[in-house]
């Protein structure tokens, strides 16, 4: 069974371009972690400043390890200077996957 994390955060539109290098650094470091299957951010086309988050992990142990990494601490520490807010993430347990 894999675990998905999906949701959104908000960044004031005027800060989004300056925040992109931080998003890229977080993506690169997280994708290199053991147990990370997918890790992505997408800026919403219709709603400026809305960033969609999608992650897939092998198991809860991989997520627990992810939350303890230095890049996660740096990521969260950067949020106030860019006005990151309204974090809404949900965790989903996936028992099976079928291509459409």
Globally, the shape reads globular
Q: How many structural domains does the protein architecture include?
A: 1
Main sheet strand line-up = 2-3-1-4
DSSP summary, beta strand count: 4
Low-confidence parts lasting 5 or more residues at pLDDT below 50? none
Q: Alpha-carbon distance between the termini?
A: 19 Å
Largest sheet features = 4 strands, antiparallel
Proportion of helical residues: 25-40%
CATH class: Alpha Beta
Helix run count: 3
What is the residue-mean pLDDT, rounded to a whole number?
A: 96
Query: How does the helix and strand content classify structurally?
Result: alpha+beta
Task: Output the keywords.
single chain; 100 residues; alpha+beta; Alpha-Beta Plaits; four-stranded antiparallel β-sheet; 3 helices; 4 strands; globular
Would you mind describing this structure in some detail?
This protein has helices at 16-31, 60-67, 70-82; strands at 2-10, 36-43, 50-57, 85-94. The chain has 3 helices and 4 strands. The chain has a single domain (2-94), classed as Alpha-Beta Plaits. Helix 1 packs antiparallel against helix 3 (70-82). It is globular. The longest helix is centred in the first third of the chain and has 16 residues, at 16-31. It has a 4-stranded antiparallel β-sheet with strand order 2-3-1-4, with helices on one face.
């Amino acid at each position: 069974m894999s675990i998905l994390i999906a949701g959104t955060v908000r960044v004031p539109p005027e800060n989004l371009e300056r925040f992109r290098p931080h998003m890229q650094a977080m993506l690169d470091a997280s994708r290199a972690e053991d147990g990370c299957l997918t890790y992505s951010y997408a800026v919403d086309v219709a709603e400026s400043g809305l960033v969609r988050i999608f992650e897939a992990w092998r198991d809860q142990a991989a997520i627990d390890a992810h939350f303890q990494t230095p890049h996660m601490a740096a990521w969260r520490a950067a949020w106030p200077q860019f006005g990151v807010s309204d974090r809404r993430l949900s965790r989903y347990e996936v028992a099976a996957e079928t291509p459409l």
